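Extended Data, panel c. Modelled sequence:
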Amino acid sequence: MLEHGGNLTQAVHRFGRPAGRWLDLSTGINPHAWPTPSIPVELWHGLPGTDDGLEKTACHHFGFPQVLPVAGTQAALQILPTLRPHSRVALQPLTYAEHAACWARQGHDVVPWSSGQDLSSIDVLVVVNPNNPTGEVTQLHRLWAWHAELAARGGWLIVDEAFMDATPTDSMLSTLPEFARKALPPGLIVLRGLGKFFGLAGARVGFVGAPPPLLEVLEDALGPWTISGPSRWLAIQALRDVSWQETMRHKLIRESARLRDLLTRSQFPPQGGTALFQWVLASQTQRLQDHLAQQGIWVRNFPKNHGIRFGLPGNELAWQHLTKGLSSFKHGTGTA
């Protein structure tokens, strides 16, 4: 199992602090989750249907021509590598690690790649946009150019837009060219989900946009009832709540700017970020993570890359807690 944010049990065991006494900033999940209503009780007693309008609602919200709901995009990540012959798969050098792990597990050759490199030897290009954990945004004209080059020889461009909801105009789905408005073209796969922006990671609801033939193959591979009835119902309600979405986008952008300012004042100026996290490079990331952990603050450490990802505090007490933790490191033990 790869390490992920949200691994608070590890911090509890390592530092001996009970789970309820932590400020967990180790994920990029929205701390102001969409307010879940009571779920109709009958949804717990029957098999989930596919005629509830979820697909139509998701297409309207995200801009997919067609879509396949899945049990979190992780389900798609694990199946997609089984649908290709042996391929050379390129990814950003530092990105969401499950992509590389899933392709390597199926025997594909996985290589690091950056935007200036040649694509001629690549069969599949995976781009996390905005990137996790660096926050880098890839421009749409680059993505479409890469897709055209790959698709011309049967390759795939996979765009993981897990952190796109706060800035939807940066999505490939926001301005689809005419030829892609009725069906995504061959070789293009776009992933979205409800875990980050909506804060519904536990519902395990993700969406795959792809050409219809590939969606059919993927659906057959996953089998029936991949998402529970209650989760489907919650997803529909959340995706239809446009007022909450608009308010939350503004709120998250403001709070991310506040976090960036706090880190900068604490002598940890971020090198990147999104509306849901900030990315800091520091020479002693383990020391900084350990110090904050002693204060009951858990952040995600990337020691090989000398980076730390800070998620958003969820209330004023949490902001004060983080401010004190950073200040005590700066004045008590030096800077990283």
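The chain has ten helices and 13 strands. This feature is highlighted in the accompanying rendering.
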